[in-house]
Amino acid sequence: MLVSICKKKTQYYYDKDKKIQEKLSIDYNFTIDFRFIDGKLVKNFVQEFKRVGENPKVFEEESIKAEKLNN
Predict the structure, then answer these.
(1) pTM, whole model, 2 decimals?
(2) pLDDT per residue over 42-62, tens digit each?
(3) Is 20 helix (H, G, I), strand (E, B) or coil?
(4) In angstroms, what CA-CA distances link 11 with 16, 19, 46, 54?
(5) For residue 31, which of 19, 40, 53, 61 sits 20 to 30 Å off, Cα-Cα?
(6) What region does 47 belong to: left with phi over 0, alpha with psi -120 to 50, or beta?
(7) Distance from C-alpha of 66 to C-alpha of 71, rounded to nearest angstrom
(8) Alpha helices, DSSP H only, in the chain?
(9) Cβ-based neighbours of 17, under 8 Å, separated by 6 or more
(10) Of 17, 28, 31, which is closest to residue 54 (Cα–Cα)?
């Protein structure tokens, strides 16, 4: 598996009230040879990667919590 992670970026969109909002995100690319990796494992990986990529602050918060538990 090859994963390429790009830098954080800000995207702008209109909410329900037609006001401009901003959202942090991370672009990423990956390639996998399915002869060696189970599809279910890949699905779980992509879902988690997408969850973190759409909201980078989640990753930072969870990393801090995990570090506190390990110390």
Answers:
(1) 0.48
(2) 888 888 888 887 777 887 888
(3) strand
(4) 16, 14, 21, 10
(5) 61
(6) alpha
(7) 9
(8) 39-54, 56-70
(9) none
(10) 28
